[in-house]
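User: Could you go from structure to sequence for me? I need the amino acid at each position, not a summary. Structure tokens:
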């Protein structure tokens, strides 16, 4: 069972690194950087409240790195599925706002794929766990 915990944790690390690099690469995109300096990007004002909300959302994948190792199997599986679904909703929502750069679409595709894989691995693990409980 621990093997599954570490795989899920590693997938959340992979996802978090993709989030970070996408944001870093965005800083090299002059249109994005110019808008960032004005405090408004594609009509979204980057207020303190917006940044706090976004910080809380981005804390979820970082927290999942730790929780995926520490939580017991059933709770771990359920929390991973819920967190991944939530992050997919956020990512799809971000893709539907404004005009996205090619690198952003690329990273978003990788991120959504990783989240779908987290859901898949958690679901398979969960159903395997349920099957072994019923057999005993």
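Assistant: Here is the amino acid at each position, in order:
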């Amino acid at each position: 069972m621990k093997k599954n915990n570490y795989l899920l944790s590693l997938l959340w690390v992979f996802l978090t690194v993709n989030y970070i690099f996408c944001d870093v690469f965005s800083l090299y995109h002059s249109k994005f950087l110019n808008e960032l300096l004005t405090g408004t990007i594609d009509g979204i004002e980057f207020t303190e409240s917006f940044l706090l909300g976004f910080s809380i959302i981005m804390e979820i994948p970082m927290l999942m790195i730790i929780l995926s190792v520490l939580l017991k199997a059933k709770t771990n599986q359920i929390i991973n599925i819920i967190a991944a679904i939530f992050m997919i909703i956020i990512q799809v929502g971000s893709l539907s706002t404004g005009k996205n750069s090619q690198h952003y679409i690329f990273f978003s595709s990788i991120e959504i794929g990783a989240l779908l894989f987290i859901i898949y691995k958690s679901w398979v693990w969960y159903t395997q766990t349920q099957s072994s409980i019923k057999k005993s």
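One structural detail worth keeping in mind: The first helix runs from residue 2 to 26.
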